[in-house]
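Something for you to look into today, if you have time. What I am after is a single protein written out in full by you. I want to see for myself how the chain folds. Could you add the entry underneath, on a fresh line?
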Amino acid sequence: MTREGFVAFQKVPVDASSKMPDAHMDAIEPYQYEDLRQFSTAYLPGYLADKYDVDTEESSKRANARIIASTERAFAATTTGYNTLTREYSRIDLKRGDVKYAMMPVWMLATKWQGQDFLFAMNGQTGKLIGDLPVDKGKYWGWFAKLALPMMVVLGLILFLLF
């Protein structure tokens, strides 16, 4: 089966700060571009802002990789009724658009717990939040035991009564 088509992308955001994990920035998307405002230093008193330190060439490579992955997912989604899908050949022609610098509204929280660093990011427009939560292993295994042991007993009784 062959798929062919055209997909247009506009305003593909790419994190241009090496200090911020790309996965965090990708996870808090999308941004409402129509709600963005012209930058003013009046927005920043009392806050930190990070200027880009990744050049245009590297940012373009990342944007292109995101576009290619999204295009392949979109075409794969058009194929239904099969258990597996194997891509044998793919040709995606990209036309480079303009690269523009924009500061997106992101709230950051970095904290340390039991000697480990944890980073959280929140989209300042939508409130979408991402981060790695610290886990107390003792409480985790305690909850696991509270849930798993009774279920094992019930399943054991059912199996015992059936056989």
